[in-house]
Specification:
Strand content: over 45%
Largest sheet: 7 strands, mixed
Distance between the termini: 41 Å
Order of helices and strands: EEEEEEEEEEE
Helix content: under 10%
Number of helices: 0
Structural class: mainly beta
Radius of gyration: 14 Å
């Protein structure tokens, strides 16, 4: 079993910064990708940023230049540094881990955290 736990959300004023953290633990053989998604009220969940093994990153257009995703492979941890936040960034942020658990070689599964609320006040 693989567990995913996020932390770091909260309330911040527009223009401020937050850093989200996400740690994966459990019976992990390997991790292919880690990423952040968000879901605002009444909207679909959307990709914010992702980082795959090797370090390649992908960002939503709306956060490019403001958010930075980084990963510490030895700790199975991913971070999302969010700067210049605005009201449109208000959402629940979910960490996603694409991993192969022990005993399931060559199969990839998606694991989700419980979500952390980010609220930006204007």
């Amino acid at each position: 079993q693989v567990q995913v736990v996020e932390s770091g959300g909260g309330l911040v004023q527009a223009g401020g910064s937050l850093r989200l953290s996400c740690a994966a633990s459990g019976s992990i053989l390997s991790i292919n990708a880690m990423g952040w998604y968000r879901q605002a009220p009444g909207k679909q969940r959307e990709l914010v940023a992702a980082i795959i093994s090797g370090g390649r990153t992908n960002y939503a257009d709306s956060v490019k230049g403001r958010f930075t995703i980084s990963r510490v492979n030895t700790k199975n941890t991913v971070y999302l540094q969010m700067n210049s936040l605005n009201a449109e960034d208000t959402a629940v942020y979910y960490c996603n881990v694409e991993a192969t658990p022990w005993g399931h070689a060559s199969n990839l599964y998606n694991y989700w955290g419980q979500g952390t609320q980010v609220t930006v006040s204007s």
